[in-house]
Amino acid sequence: MTSNGIDTSSEQSIPLFQDKLRDSTSRYVDMTLITERPMEHRSTFTKKLGARIELRKQLLLRRKWLVDMMLSMAVVGIILMIVENELYYLNVADAIKKEKKTTVSMILKLFTTISTCLLLVAICLYYRTGAEIRMLDARVDDPLAVTSMSTWFSLIVELLVCAVHPIPGDIQVYMTTITGITDLVHMDGIFSVLMMFRLYLIGRFLVVHSPLLTDPSTQTISAVSHVKIDMFFVFKAAMADHPGQVIAFTMLSMYSVSVWAMRTCELYYTHLSQAHSLTQSMWLAAITFLTVGYGDLTPRTHCGRFISVVTGLMGLASTALLVAVVAKKIEQSRSDKYVYNYLSLIHLQCKRKNAAADVIKFSIKAFSAKKTHSQEPTHSHRINMRYLSWKLSNAIRSMRSTRAARQRVEEASVGLTD
């Protein structure tokens, strides 16, 4: 209470803003654009990072083991297929249709099918492991989020390529030969040739066992620089380090596969008396691989023609690689180019000095000859004056060409910045 009898405690202050405006502004002021998260302790973050690194290491080891299993199953299936085909070749003269139904043939094909099934399972697990690695790197839980359409396409193609093999039994179809004769033939020959496409797994095996992939520092650098270490990266690195060995191994492998495929096609789909022997198949594959083609031997089946086309393409690719390596080997190195340019500059400098000296010398001689000819105009003096004038012109021309050549060498030489 005051002296005037007015209760000041009951007085209310007048707001500067309206209540409605105050509510709206306070609502916007209280909003936060970024939700606050509790700060993780450094030790907790380190433990999570260490667990992620350890899990990634285990996944890489699992993928390496799966690739080893894939290549092992592929090689086992190819070996069993080759053994079954060789048994067929041995008995083809006596029983061309009975051998495919024998117990030995059925057992070999059964084990080939089992190895193929294990190979397909290993391929699926390999792609699953790759998806888990990408999920760990991207910190996501959905495998579909890190799997692109190209990955699905690669998986389907690999399953189709590796699933081809001679299945147990005797599958025969009618096929028209080159001569126009329709006959009942086995499909095992085509399946056996197509099984050789499994050898692409050798490249994947070399990639997972390469130091470029197993080294943690290399993985870190590739992740930072967004460079994918795959089969092509390892192949280019091997070509840079050991070009001769890589090309020799590649050409020998392609040639061996083409020889076996040519022999298989000729023995399966022609009569024994008309089929090419092993030496003839080697000669035919060699002249096709080298793109020579003498014409003394030609394939007698459609399968053989297909193998010839593939062999020719592989020969062209190998020849291109060989030419590139040879051109790189005969190219001058940095030191060789520097020494060559330095010696060229010294030679051109000496040549230019000699030409300049000749210009001065023949200028004096031509002036003296001209003065002598003016005093005593004889035929010999005129010939001498023309000869000296011609020598002077040649000296001037040589000095100019030498100067231009020196400028070209200086432009092509290695500078300090290089």
UniProtKB/TrEMBL annotation:
Gene3D superfamilies, per database record: 1.10.287.70
Main subcellular localisation: membrane
Transmembrane segments: 65-83, 103-127, 189-207, 246-263, 275-294, 306-327
InterPro entries associated with the record: 2pore_dom_K_chnl, CaM-bd_dom_sf, K_chnl_Ca-activ_SK, K_chnl_dom
Signal peptide: none
Membrane topology: Multi-pass membrane protein
Location in the cell: Membrane
Record carries keyword ATP-binding: no
Protein name (database record): Potassium channel domain-containing protein
Keyword list, A-Z: Ion channel, Ion transport, Membrane, Transmembrane, Transmembrane helix, Transport
The gene coding this protein: ORF95087
GO molecular function, one term: small conductance calcium-activated potassium channel activity
